[in-house]
Amino acid sequence: MNRFFEDKEVAINYLKHRPHYSAEIAEAIINYLAEYKVKPFQMALDIGCGPGQLTRSLAPYFDEVLGVDVSSAQIDVAKTAQNPKNLSFSVGIAEDLPTPDSSVDLITSATASHYFDWTEFRKEVNRVLKPNGCLAVLSFDVIYIDHPDDVIMKKLNDCIDSYLDYTNNQDLKASTPVDYQHTMEKYTTLQLPFADQKSVDIDTRYNGSVTEFIECIKTYAAAINFMKDNPGTSYFMDFQMSIMSILGGGDPDVTMVTSWMPIFIRFARKPGTNL
């Protein structure tokens, strides 16, 4: 698994600037789990948890939730947040899960599973899930900006696509640490375990300033590496200025936009006895 998120400043920015997953995301996951599992649910495992955005949203539904990440910096930052008593965090990897056989009701991974060694991860998922236990992997491709004027919205999102073109922008492509084809194809190319599978798409929206939007983009893995590879670059400032120009100018710190994140979730259920 890639380890470029281990920098402490990166971890802090990830917690500060990445949007938290909406209640609708957690509800979709729990609804799938509840089709064949009886409440109360005992154990959830969130892999590649980062500072815990998805992990915390699962806490109300389980007796125990464990967030696992390869980065000790991400885990340290996760522990600084206000966490419920049934939530804990640990350094670990997807290919060697820190739980006993048949002990977990739910395994999740948000914007991380495209970094896993899926041959080994599938074995671990099968090992630790209880019968009827579920795997839910989710991510998104690009965060866009909504606008009431369709012409302006198209200009904004064409601008976003242009600046975040991992295929044709050779500098950005060179800094991309993983093949984004999995996310571009909504994880349909990932070989999930188990025959019982389902896919769900959910659009979530967030309000914030243009500056906050750009700071979120700068937490992308490709952006992190690009800034390391190109110290002093004005790339993301130019990106911000382009957005402000389309919006008619102003102060990016106070100009508010509604960004929308097209989330896709892929589910798989371990075989077990029907309810």
From TrEMBL:
<comment type="similarity">
    <text>Belongs to the methyltransferase superfamily.</text>
</comment>
<protein>
    <recommendedName>
        <fullName>Methyltransferase type 11 domain-containing protein</fullName>
    </recommendedName>
</protein>
<keyword id="KW-0808">Transferase</keyword>
<feature type="domain" description="Methyltransferase type 11">
    <location>
        <begin position="45"/>
        <end position="136"/>
    </location>
</feature>
<dbReference type="GO" id="GO:0008757">
    <property type="term" value="F:S-adenosylmethionine-dependent methyltransferase activity"/>
</dbReference>
<keyword id="KW-0489">Methyltransferase</keyword>
<dbReference type="InterPro" id="IPR013216">
    <property type="entry name" value="Methyltransf_11"/>
</dbReference>
<dbReference type="GO" id="GO:0032259">
    <property type="term" value="P:methylation"/>
</dbReference>
<dbReference type="Pfam" id="PF08241">
    <property type="entry name" value="Methyltransf_11"/>
</dbReference>
<dbReference type="InterPro" id="IPR051052">
    <property type="entry name" value="Diverse_substrate_MTase"/>
</dbReference>
<dbReference type="InterPro" id="IPR029063">
    <property type="entry name" value="SAM-dependent_MTases_sf"/>
</dbReference>
